[in-house]
Design brief:
single chain; alpha/beta; FAD/NAD(P)-binding domain; five-stranded parallel sheet; 20 strands
Length: 478
């Protein structure tokens, strides 16, 4: 059996690792990737040491079902990167990239020991079509390949230029790697960062680490900052679990948002906490003063209440499964709280929150909402909106790509799969495989929630794809 994996980022690493544990015997595994920087993808390549992995090690394992895999690999190296407030090691993303490289190389070595021929083709794949029981593939440089199973591990989309500033001097369309892009920014320049999520926080913290002295403005429609991670307590959810959600689905044939709220309500009640107070606190995210909220959350890093901890963990571990079972009306209710949900589900680490708080207190960092237009004028940028009117020297685009968007480099390949009828676009974005020999792993997988895929979600998808490949279409496990 021949397997072709398109892409060589975290999703491909998770799939290789899962295949190494289950696939043996003859056949080839071909990884098609044009970039020379294998296994790290866009997020985890070489960058400034201030660009940290934004979550604790326990939820960064790329091995599905083994939450300790990354923490075990990190071992004593984590001591040099301890966040004292969180009580957990938070390493530079480039170091996490080394973990991905090491995991991929060990998986490939094991596959070869088990009789697989594993190779990497340094090219982009532009076309795929079904030819009998096989796939016919074509690379950008004209090579023809054939395979039995095709796995798309192509990563997420690219940031959208909402204000049409591409090509303007002083506009940074994609901030990563920050070690390179921020070299263009003079130390005293006024900098406007479009967005206020984790990417924007990375930009602010890296500017501060470089000794930037100019004004920094975070500009977004909502003005909402990410929440702050709390110190782990060891609590494991007993009610908000995939097993409980599956049981509800078996019993009622559907799972509603009220059902999920009921599970969270039971979780909090068992811990002696009020769901209503917790919900009111979350809903106030959009209206509270961001600096006041940030200060309160930094003070609550050690707060023993479990509400946010449970929601942050289960948004990624249970959320993708539960989302597929919800009625569309309930999904739409959740989409209306998109900014609050992403703020909670993708919090910033305390060490970064401390830097942001210091810059807000000093007045060097300003939060602004409601911009309608940004224009390049006479070598600078004019910002206009209902509550803002200013000029700035540099604009950094820190807007995250929409979840389930197609990366530009994969557009031709996706178009060919759609034309072949092997896949179809999902109404909410992403790609749905219509052929059991096609597998989509990562953020491109259609049907996922409105929250961008996390490492735990990617690892679970990779493990599922490996089972489907090994078992075959007639023997898939539930």
């Amino acid at each position: 059996m021949d397997i072709t994996i398109v892409g060589a980022g975290a999703a491909a690493v998770g799939l290789l690792d899962a295949l190494a544990a289950s696939a043996s015997g003859p056949g080839t595994i071909t990884v098609v990737e044009p970039s020379p920087h294998l296994w790290k993808g866009r997020p985890y390549g070489p960058d400034s040491d201030s660009v940290l992995v934004n979550v604790p090690p326990a939820i960064m394992s790329i091995r599905g079902g083994d939450m300790a895999h990354y923490a075990s690999w990190l071992g004593a190296r984590g001591a040099a990167h301890m966040d004292d407030l969180l009580g957990q090691p938070l390493v530079p993303r480039a170091l996490y990239g080394e973990y991905l490289v090491d995991t991929a190389e060990k998986a490939m070595a094991m596959l070869r020991e088990n009789g697989r021929d594993v190779r990497v083709v340094p090219a982009g794949l532009t076309a795929a079509s079904r030819s009998g029981a096989r796939w016919s593939l074509r690379t950008r440089d004209g090579r023809a390949l054939e395979t039995d199973h095709l796995a798309l591990c192509v990563g997420g989309g690219t940031p959208h230029d909402h204000y049409g500033l591409s090509g303007a001097a002083g506009f940074i369309a994609d901030p990563y790697p920050l070690a390179t892009t921020l070299d263009e920014v003079p130390p005293g320049a006024d900098v406007t960062v479009i967005g206020s999520g984790l990417t924007a926080v990375d930009v602010v913290v890296t500017l501060a680490a470089r000794g930037h002295s100019g004004r920094i403005t975070l500009l977004s429609r909502s003005g909402v900052l990410p929440h702050v991670w709390q110190r782990p307590t060891g609590h494991r959810p007993r009610h908000v679990t995939a097993e409980r959600v599956a049981a509800l689905h078996r019993e009622h044939g559907v799972v509603t948002l009220d059902d999920l709220v009921g599970l969270l309500r039971a979780e909090l009640a068992e811990a002696g906490e009020s769901f209503d107070e917790f919900a009111a606190e979350l809903l106030a995210t959009s209206t509270d003063d961001p600096a006041r909220r940030l200060r309160a959350q930094l003070a609550a890093v050690d707060d023993p209440r479990i509400g946010r901890r449970v929601l942050q963990e289960t948004a990624h571990s249970v959320g993708p499964f539960a989302w597929r079972l919800l009625p569309e009306a309930d999904r739409e209710r959740l989409r209306q709280h998109f900014r609050v949900a992403t703020s909670v589900a993708s919090p910033m680490v305390p060490v970064n929150a401390t830097v942001v708080m210091r810059l807000l207190d000093s007045g060097q960092l300003v939060l602004a909402a409601g911009a309608h237009r940004i224009e390049a004028v006479d070598g600078r940028f004019r910002v206009r909106g209902s509550r803002i009117s200013s000029t700035t020297d540099v604009v950094v685009n820190a807007v995250n790509p929409p979840p389930r968007s197609v990366p530009q480099g994969a557009r031709q390949l996706v178009d060919s799969l759609l034309a072949d009828g092997a896949a179809e676009p999902h109404p909410s974005g992403g790609l749905v495989a219509l052929d059991p020999r096609l597998h989509v792993v990562g953020d491109l997988a259609g049907g996922g929630s409105f929250i961008t895929s996390s490492i735990p979600g990617v690892a679970a998808q990779a493990a599922g794809a490996a089972r489907a490949i090994v078992d075959g279409p007639d023997r898939r496990r539930p």
